[in-house]
Amino acid sequence: MKVQQNAVNVLERTSSYLKAGLLTKTPAWYDVVARVPPSKRFVREPRMVNPATDEPTSQLPEYEDLYDPTVGIHKTRASRADKKSLANKLYKAPKLKYAEDKLRELFYEQHPWERSRPKMLVENAGTRTYQWDTLQQLGKPLDGESVVQRTLHLLKTKQQPELLAAYDQARFEFYRLRIQEEVQSQVAQEEAEMFGSVFGPSAIEFGVQREQKIIDIWKQKAINQSELMSARNSNPAESWSSSSAQSEEESKTQESQEIQL
Amino acid sequence: MFGTKLTPRTLSRSYITPSLEHLKKGAGLSGIFSEKGLQTAWFDRAELHTEKLNQYLSHSEEKPLESIVHGYAKSASKREVFNQASQLYNLRFAMSSLHGNDLPSIQKPGPKVLLETPKLELDFKNDPRETGNARLSSALASSFGSLIEFRSLLLNSNKAIAGDGFTWLVARKVNTSQRESLASGNVEFDWLYVLNTYNAGSPFNFNKVGHISDLQRQFEKLKPVEEEVEEENSNPLQIKSVQEARESESYKSATYVPLLAIDASPKAWLTDYGVFGKDLYLERVWESIEWNIVEQRLPARAPNYQLT
What we know:
The complex is a heterodimer.
Chain A lengths: L9 H11 L9 H6 L13 E2 L4 E2 L10 E2 L4 E2 L5 H12 L7 H12 L33 H13 L6 H32 L8 H32 L1 H25 L1
Chain B lengths: L2 H4 L28 H23 L7 H8 L6 H18 L37 H11 L2 H14 L4 E9 L7 H4 L3 E11 L12 H12 L19 H8 L6 E8 L2 H8 L4 H11 L2 H7 L2 E2 L7
Parallel strand pairs in B: 2-4
Antiparallel strand pairs in B: 1-2, 1-3
Helix pairs in contact in B: 2-4, 2-10, 3-4, 6-11
């Protein structure tokens, strides 16, 4: 199939249209695309090294590995199937595997309630680099990520020989700091109350209150509706007879009115 | 020579600055306070509070400090007197159980301590189990789980106090209305607790929750009363709000016997330990606690029918 380049040349074409006077108004996207032009390299490049593991993505086997003792000969030519699988791997996006992910998974499996802590999801200040000589960081609240990073730091600086030992050390440091934090927040509240603070409803309580108002209205409606339904269903025959009697009476009165008329 | 005799005796009495045997002017307390540190942490403050106490009481009477603390705690008009008396009592109580230790002299820590990771090794030496205070240590172990848990709770509670205050180890008195021990006058406790008081707060009057509203009511009484009758539409079936419930229902009958106090005031640690030194100060305080004195204050333990 021919490589489609029309879409990529949109900037050039638009510029020439503008120059020729076919377009009078510059499109809104024009400056943006001019600043960040689309890539025009359509050549797929083989990725020889997996960036996650720093190992070659595909490699032909060594000569020694090709020896087949049952037959007593070396297989010197790769078959078509062999070549195909090797080539496939070269162009596939390699799977990224990091030790951090496993640690994170382990930590949050062991401490599921850590997930319930409020967390800032949107950060607009860019990425920061932290020094993990200490578990606590300025500008970063203590959480599972701190434990993961501290574990890796302990391993990198050879303070702990093994992954699990490093993880345990980071974890216990984390517990210490959490204990401190917990007492601190309790005492802060107590101290503030002692000096006369009155705390309003929390964000969650406020939400529940708002919800409760709607629920109250709904409840009243539901009560009314169910009363109506129960009234209808209580003795259907009676209500029908009464309604039919009523209609009969009405028709009678109408008739009498007609007669009078 | 007889001049002193001839001066007319004033009938006024006044409080004398309290003194403790193990604290001497012109010397520090080894391992915890330097000479200047002890001066600011103890002598200056004791003098100041005594002076103010005399000033507010205007030499009218002399009661033991404890009875002032007990008696005036909920009085709005006597609050200056109470504040001074309570602070003096707390300070003396805290200093009385602090004896020196043999650790090297203090070096002020720098700002790095703020982020420092706590050490995992628990290398404290002053252990009530090793100083022969079995009764105290067993009470601590049963109330807090273990000595380590008690230590971290005590020191962390103190560390968390932002301003002035004290952290107390207290024993809760058993409500002995039915028991015969009341007749014999023995005090018994069931559990030990760690308690914080702030500024001039007192462990005898620890129920801090309703204080502000109490004082407010008293002040309103002092003012000329405005003619306005509040309509009370209290419904016995209505559930109280958390605030109301805490003010009216919590800690109704508990009384505490203080055993140990730790001063959290910067006046105690700023001179010797610097701005970043509260952690170090608390570690040194732990090393300096005289457990014998703490154990002497511990009342008898009430028989406990719970399984622990």
